[in-house]
Structure formats: C-alpha cells, structure tokens
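User: For a reading group we're discussing how well predicted structures match intuition. Take LuxR family two component transcriptional regulator. Before you show the prediction, I'll give you the sequence so everyone sees exactly what went in.
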Amino acid sequence: MTEPTTDEGRRLTVFLVDDHAMFRAGVRAELGAHVDVVGEASSVSEAVTRIAATLPDVVLLDVHMPDGGGRAVLDAMRRTHPQVKFLALSVSDAAEDVIGLIRAGARGYVTKTISPDELAAAVKRVADGDAVFSPRLAGFVLDAFAARPDVPVADPELDQLTNREREVLRLLARGYAYKEIAKELYISIKTVETHVSNVLRKLQMSNRYELSRWAADRRLV
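Assistant: Thanks. Here is the predicted 3D structure of LuxR family two component transcriptional regulator, as structure tokens, for the group to look at:
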C-alpha cells in the first residue's frame, strides 16, 4: 500500500496505548513499515504524560486497561490537547465499548483482527479527519445516536463486571475454550477460570451456557 503521510509529505506519527507488551511489540513491528511509532504506554497515567510530550498525529488506544482504560485517557487528553486524534484498537467489539469510546471523543474503532495494511489505512483516514469503523461497529454507533443521542448505554448487571471479566465473558460466549481465551488475552488459564467464576457469581448463573445466552441477549457476542 502507499505509505501514509501528512499533507506536508512527512510520515504520520503514531502512539500506542495497550497494557500488553507483546501486543504493542507486534503492532510496532507491523505498523512501523508504514508510519513512525513515536512512543507507547501501558497505563493511563503514562499514556497521558507521553502523549502530551510527543503530540502524535494519531493515538492507537486500547479500550480495557486496569486503571480506567481508553476512556480515562480520552477524558484527560480532551481537556488539554483536543487536537490529538484517537483510534480505538481493541479485542472487544461490544456495542457499549464502541459507543462509549466514540462519545468520549475517539474518531474510530477497529478490532485487533485488522490486518497491518488495513490498520495503516485506518490511521491515515483518522489523521485526515475521517471516522473509521468496520460495518458492524458503524451500525452500533448509528443505531445508538439515532435512537437515543443523549442517553449513555447502561446495564446495571453488566456494570457489575470488570473490564477484564467482560472480555472473558464475550470470548466464552463465542465458544472459545479456556486455553484459547488465555492466549487471546495474554493471561493464564487459571486467571481465566477465576474470571469465569466471578462472572457466574455476580450474575447468579451456574454454567457457561446461561452466560452465553445472557451475553447474546445484550449483543455482546
């Protein structure tokens, strides 16, 4: 593909925010052929400080991190550096995650299954001021803003779950085995088992089949 550049002809600068070091390394290696990756961070506080110092063209932002996630980064940066553009890059394709990040100011949302060339093209489009979504995710945003533009998506039962528990629930509901979930989220099988146990307890359910139906009813799958 053609190398993404700014209107001035220089290579685009990108900053990575994700709490998984292996994933950041992979994105840096694959995206580095197309853009200049000028920094990375694994936490909200680190991201806010380093983004302000580098002022990249686009920030690739994970949704779920232990200390507030992508929403917290967006909230902090919007107050001080509104010119920085954000593209969410997440394992989650749940409606409430997509809508929440867009309401907070992200210019687009893509999942981690995206190819390097597609990601580079998405970065270029966001840098140019366009909004970028896969067709399915775009549908979530259009439905939410057309139907209830001023009301945030809320679910008291879902709100009981931590961000990581939600990720595990979605993958479980899609039929992933514990080993596959552990590999996808870069955590141990034992940790997956703990998260599943916590979700079952919080939602007062007894097995993964009930969880799958519950997740499907909320369009989380």
